[in-house]
């Protein structure tokens, strides 16, 4: 251990003691070891590989390899089996749905048939099939299709407040209450009528006073997607931060260096804006990546101290129960990455590969999460933390929302917008390709077990439900209703249209 590392470690230990932070570290235990077949896997090369079509006879080879990856390396495989997945039938089931022409099949058709046969068994949003750069999710994401009808809750009943000429005001609403979404911009105890669906829908029948009424519905859509966006806006009482990415681009690129600078700015805003009455963090479009930017930001807000390097190690799994699958596919994936990027621990991964070849096994670990008690009183930030989310907020973007709630409390964190992507129950994805079609399979060796402990979490492909629902048109007025900051309202006037 280097002298420099010891000095850094002593500094952080002193910092932790100074603010009365006590940690019981996570304990990962081996709970099961199963022998398995060792099989070489196919790493993604730096150059994109794509085949538009393939010889039909090679489809069987790809499917057998996919079965190997699923059964030995995918943390969701036990759940697939519980749902009725039979790996011994999978290859023939896929092949029977293909109609080759002249013994040839397009890779897009092949991929679609694989996805169709996996759909009943996989809910994991991190699981992807990728062909020519185009990602296919196994499940469709659920979004809200809105009506223009608002209802008011009185006691335990709902009555139409504004029927927009479609239904009379004052009539009783008697359909499933899961179609109502809290919409405080229109008044206390006011809900907007809508329908959560994974398929496009233009109208739906709802029951009012015992009669079915056909109600038009529409998709509010989302703001335009941008690769990298960071923005700060400040008034005396309020601050706005846009952070639409947590993933670093490829190392040693101009984009990588620029992203690191933006991460630093974002983290340091925890100190810069700690005395604000309101902080709006715009996570719309944030598909995830690293967790340390949000944890570093929160550490500044809560403790007033720079703890980003420690919190970088305190990843989400350190606070949650999870299963981790250590398999030949996992070892070979990281060995190949270590070779491509010339990691310092390349020799360690090489030794793991040699050991796994001699005695191939899959090891299943369970994690007992650490108990963390750095959330002492008084915390530095005592204002309102307003988090904006949309259907593209995913993975580490979702974790940033859930852990803000856990760190600062429900009363201090208000989540605004629409439901997020629903991509947070699995983590640490592996990406490998099928040998013949070159289709890339992205799957997770890690499964979280405590997502349901978060009240706002509604599952994979449905995601986080906001505290306050809002369409893009109403977003600025809703933020103003929370902050009561007129100057801030002017600064954010176009927030519903796009990133500022």
Task: Explain the overall architecture.
The chain is α+β, with helices and mostly antiparallel strands and 500 residues long. The protein has 13 helices and 27 strands. Helices cover 30% and strands 25% of the residues. It has helices at 3-18, 59-73, 77-82, 87-96, 107-118, 254-272, 292-303, 308-313, 328-341, 346-358, 396-408, 475-483, 486-491; strands at residues 23-24, 27-35, 53-55, 104-106, 128-131, 134-137, 143-154, 157-162, 172-173, 180-182, 190-197, 203-208, 211-216, 218-219, 230-234, 238-243, 278-282, 322-326, 361-368, 371-372, 384-389, 413-417, 426-427, 430-433, 440-443, 446-448, 468-469. Strands 7, 8, 9, 10, 11 and 14 form a 6-stranded antiparallel β-sheet that branches. A 6-stranded mixed β-sheet has the order 15-16-17-21-22-27, sandwiched between helices. The chain has a 5-stranded antiparallel β-sheet with strand order 2-19-18-26-23.
Determine the fraction of residues in helical runs and give it as a percent range: 25-40%
Oligomerization state of this entry?
single chain
* Residues in β-strands, percent: 25-35%
| Number of helical regions | 13
Would you spell out the secondary-structure blueprint of this structure?
Elements: H1 3-18, E1 23-24, E2 27-35, E3 53-55, H2 59-73, H3 77-82, H4 87-96, E4 104-106, H5 107-118, E5 128-131, E6 134-137, E7 143-154, E8 157-162, E9 172-173, E10 180-182, E11 190-197, E12 203-208, E13 211-216, E14 218-219, E15 230-234, E16 238-243, H6 254-272, E17 278-282, H7 292-303, H8 308-313, E18 322-326, H9 328-341, H10 346-358, E19 361-368, E20 371-372, E21 384-389, H11 396-408, E22 413-417, E23 426-427, E24 430-433, E25 440-443, E26 446-448, E27 468-469, H12 475-483, H13 486-491
Parallel strand pairs: 16-17, 17-21, 21-22, 22-27
Antiparallel strand pairs: 1-20, 2-19, 3-4, 5-6, 5-25, 7-8, 7-11, 7-14, 8-9, 10-11, 12-13, 15-16, 18-19, 18-26, 23-26, 24-25
């Amino acid at each position: 251990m280097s002298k420099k590392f010891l000095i850094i470690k002593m500094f952080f230990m002193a910092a932790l003691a100074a603010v009365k932070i006590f940690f019981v570290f996570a304990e990962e235990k081996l709970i099961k070891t199963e022998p398995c077949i060792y099989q070489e896997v196919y790493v993604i090369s730096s150059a994109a590989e794509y085949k538009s079509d393939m010889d039909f006879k090679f489809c069987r080879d790809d499917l057998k390899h996919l079965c190997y990856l699923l059964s030995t390396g995918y943390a969701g495989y036990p759940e697939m089996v519980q749902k009725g997945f039979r790996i011994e039938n999978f290859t023939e089931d896929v092949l029977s749905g293909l109609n080759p022409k002249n013994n040839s099949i397009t890779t897009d058709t092949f991929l679609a048939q694989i996805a169709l046969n996996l759909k009943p068994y996989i809910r994991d949003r991190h699981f992807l099939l990728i062909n020519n750069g185009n990602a296919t999710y196994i499940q469709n994401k659920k979004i809200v299709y809105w009506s223009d009808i608002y209802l008011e809750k009185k006691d335990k009943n709902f009555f139409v407040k504004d029927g927009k000429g479609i239904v009379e005001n004052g009539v009783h609403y008697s359909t499933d209450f899961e179609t109502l979404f809290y919409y405080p911009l229109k008044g206390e105890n006011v809900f907007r009528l809508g329908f959560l669906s994974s398929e496009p829908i233009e109208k739906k029948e709802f029951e009012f006073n015992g009669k079915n009424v056909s109600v038009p519905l529409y998709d509010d859509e989302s703001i335009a997607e941008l690769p990298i966006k960071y923005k700060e806006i400040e008034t005396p009482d309020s601050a706005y931060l846009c952070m639409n990415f947590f993933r670093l681009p490829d190392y040693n690129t101009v984009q990588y260096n620029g992203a690191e600078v933006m991460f630093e700015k974002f983290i340091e805003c925890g100190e810069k804006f700690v005395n604000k009455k309101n902080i709006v963090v715009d996570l719309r479009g944030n598909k995830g990546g690293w967790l340390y930017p949000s944890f570093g930001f929160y550490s500044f807000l809560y403790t007033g101290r720079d703890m980003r390097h420690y919190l970088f190690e305190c990843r989400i799994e350190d606070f949650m129960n999870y299963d981790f699958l250590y398999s030949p596919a996992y070892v070979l994936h990281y060995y190949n990455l270590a070779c491509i990027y010339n990691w310092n621990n390349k020799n360690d991964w090489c030794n793991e590969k040699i050991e796994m070849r001699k005695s191939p096994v899959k090891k299943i670990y369970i994690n007992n999460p650490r108990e963390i008690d750095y959330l002492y009183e008084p915390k530095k930030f005592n204002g309102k933390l307003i988090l904006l989310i949309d259907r593209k907020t995913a993975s580490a973007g979702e974790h940033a929302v859930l852990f803000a709630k856990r760190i600062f409390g429900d009363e201090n964190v208000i989540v605004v917008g629409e439901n997020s992507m629903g991509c947070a129950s699995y983590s640490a994805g592996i990406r490998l390709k099928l040998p013949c079609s070159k289709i890339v399979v992205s799957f997770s060796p890690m499964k979280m077990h405590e997502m349901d402990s978060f009240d706002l979490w509604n599952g994979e492909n449905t995601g986080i439900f906001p505290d306050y629902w809002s369409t893009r048109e109403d977003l600025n007025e809703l933020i103003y209703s929370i902050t009561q900051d007129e100057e801030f309202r002017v600064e954010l006037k176009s927030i519903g249209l796009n990133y500022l």
